[in-house]
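Researcher: Here's the sequence for the chain we discussed earlier.
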Amino acid sequence: MPSWLLILVVGIVLLIFGIAVEAAQFLIWLGIIVLVVSLILGLVGRGRGSRV
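Model: Thanks. This is the structure I predict for it:
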């Protein structure tokens, strides 16, 4: 499993958990940050893979 996909799954889980538990609103932001980072890593990985 690629690392960016693993990070994406973790981000989605944190996002869902953060929405489910309103008291832990920082999890929503953490989930969003992890999702953005995983999307960037995915795009960079695809760009690097297509050049080889």
